[in-house]
Amino acid sequence: MDDRLQYRIALTLIPGIGCKSYRQIVELCGEPELLFKMKRKELTEIFGNHPDIIEAILNGSTLKRAEEECLFIEKNNLHTLFFTEEDYPRRLNRSDCADTPPLLYVQGDCNLNRRHVVSIVGTRRITPYGRDMAERIVRDLASDDMLVVSGLAYGVDTAAHTASLENKLPTAGVLGHGLDQLYPPQNRNLAMRMLEQGGCLITEYPSYTKINASYFPARNRIIAALADAVIVVEASEKGGALITANIANSYHRDVFAVPGRCFDTYSKGCNNLLANNKAIIYTDIEKFFFNMGWDYTKSPNGAQQELFPKLTRDEQKVVDLLHEEERLGIEDISEKLNTPLPKMAGILLNLELENVIRCLPGKFYQLSCKSESNAKLRD
């Protein structure tokens, strides 16, 4: 059994330690294992106003449950992703997503750091129009480096996952419960097909967590944060899809909504997002790619292919850095990459001319597209 994982899980089980505070604790103290080996005096310096947390750490009350979870993970061939590890979804580690889970439980082997990730959400009571749109969107998205994310619920989620399988796209389902069960149970076969075709199931909840209605809106922040863009296909005036859209906006993700007829119940949510400038109208895949700053062309069989500028190694380093930092001044870029300012100025100018980055007031730079770094090295 992995002792380090046991301590990581144990810390998540202590009441009063949320996702944001968990991250701060680890950044301050290091691995959770070190925290459980501290003396009362040291813990008091960290948690002075929270004696319950201090006692829970000292008496190790969550370690037994964490040990059981480690055994469950090993027995069921699951794995975890911790926020300090390389495989953890980089999009969840951005500064505007401080409340995302520091630890994820995963079934299946799926790269959550693909170049492009799109979340597709909507009502559970999907209409024929919504189903057609979900299937059309996924079919048009199909490419070698695209991942579709949804919540494995009825309706739009099911349509998005199913269409992904039909178009040979990996797809990830974010759950509002532990991996010992599946809700709704009618989607179990769909979930198994997703795993068989290179997809995965993700949750922040350990096994045998009782299903709670409040956990499903909470998991929507993961659906929003995992993606470069969230597309709302159909939604009523209230519901989980709009929660996801609002969270995505707060995370500075691009939100798109499929318009519908004014008096259709399950188009009102999308139409309201558009009317209130909380979403970009989704009409076709070419405009979607244009809005995302992604290059698009059609192959002979109708599926899209991506064309990216080819970058030198120095240019690629700048792109990777701006992906992580999102916005930096030329001096900071030069210092972080240990490159003289005159040379860096030339590199930035070339990237700007290629429309890979854009220059902001004050000589700050950011990526011109909101995807993962998507450039290929020159030969």
Q: How would you sum up this structure, described in words?
A:
The chain starts with a helix and ends with a strand. With 379 residues, it is of the alpha/beta class. It has helices at residues 3-12, 19-29, 32-36, 40-47, 51-59, 63-75, 128-141, 156-166, 188-196, 215-225, 240-250, 268-275, 285-292, 313-325, 330-336, 341-353; strands at 79-82, 103-107, 116-121, 146-150, 171-174, 200-203, 229-232, 254-257, 280-281, 297-298, 304-305, 310-311, 328-329, 357-360, 364-367, 376-377. The protein has a nine-stranded mixed β-sheet with strand order 1-2-6-5-4-3-7-8-9, sandwiched between helices. It has a three-stranded antiparallel β-sheet with strand order 13-15-14. The chain folds into three domains: 1-75; 107-298, Rossmann fold, CATH 3.40.50; 310-377, Winged helix-like DNA-binding domain superfamily/Winged helix DNA-binding domain (Arc Repressor Mutant, subunit A, Orthogonal Bundle), CATH 1.10.10.10.
